[in-house]
Amino acid sequence: MKVLILAAGMGTRMKSKKPKVMHEIMGKPMLNWVIDTSKELTNDIAVVLGHGIDKVRTILNDDVEIFEQKQTLGTGHAVMSAEEFLTGEELLILYGDVPLISLKTLKNLISKHRKEKNDATLLTVDLENPYGYGRVVRNKDEFEKIVEHRDADEKQLKIKEINSGIAIYNITSLRKALKQINSNNSQGEYYLTDAFLYFKKVGIFKTDNKYEVSGVNNRVQLSELSYIARKEILNNLMLNGVTILDPESTYIDKEVKIGFDTVIMPQTYIFGDTTIGEDCCIGPMTRINCCKIGDNVKVLRSECEKAEIFNNVSVGPYSRIREKSIIEDNVKIGNFVETKKTKVSKNSKAQHLSYLGDACIGENVNIGAGTITCNYDGKNKFKTNIGKNSFVGSNTSLVAPVNVGENSIIAAGSVITEDIPDSTLAFGRARQINKVGKLEKEREKGE
After folding, report:
1. Feature table: binding site
2. Taking the model in full, what pTM does it have?
């Protein structure tokens, strides 16, 4: 079986600089939702693109074949644009702006098609308000024809069963039918629905879920389907052992994986290729993007992005763990601490008000409040290394490149510009001078 996804439309009602099918639902472009579902059925997948083809290419992998519809002349013409793909026995046609179609429904559609040996099998749904949709007309419960809304008579307009556009075809039958349809209509387009006039046997599979066959034409509809997708994602996580205290304020992308007995607090946002282990507590008011997080981790009111956090780690509140940070077991990253391209080794602590950038911090190191690794000289970035079991006093500035040995202590308020050997006490502060009585004399002069 092959899958052909039609995604050539302009999407003018989106009022956007990017093609409609690139707009995201829960962190993933609509077209990629359809492709990922298709890959559960077959590896033989093609996409018909048109408007913004060069932009859409950027979100597609090499295993998806691309055809171009150079003129927007209808769905039938879009399928004709992929004529060389129409070989073999079966073709499932999907749409790039109908992202929530389920694997279960498609399998049921395919099964019915094969069992009945149809030329085509159409996916339909009943809508309370079918305005604008093509109606499916039956004769003694069997398929008779599809009537577009503008062509329907008064009786046909009362039909609630609509054509979703999704269907599976016998490829030989489809190729013959495509040669017979024409563009003699008010739009001057080739309608794929006209092909059904030339099939001998058409089956129907009706779904009871209108959302999985709903298309997106504007940002209101995008928001509606995003809400449905988000609700399903959260429900699946909860049914698989994750506690989500307030689903209404929680956003978790489809690709995110979360382990048993992890608790997601309110106002938490988890995006991208993120994995979170078991027995964690994430949030509230936390944002995580593309991170790998171990077991028994607490992240409170913080941001983590493109970082790796090991087991039994505490982060926050108000911390920022930036890209290429590695936070090892039993580390504590406290309030208003930022890391970037930094490895913090086991059992180390940075509890308050610090910036650790381009650094490697050994095991059992204590970073005092207000510590800064001065990694940038205005032109280049440099690295700071701190050996295990060392203590960095509060308000220390480490001017990179600089190395601090093991078992060393840096006095509070120091500016460190040179390497510190192992087991060394280092000072790097100006000498304090107290001028007793000087302040009173200055005040008397002022008066």
Report:
1. 6-9, 20, 69, 74-75, 95-97, 134, 148, 163, 217, 322, 340, 355, 366, 369, 375-376, 394, 412, 429
2. 0.89
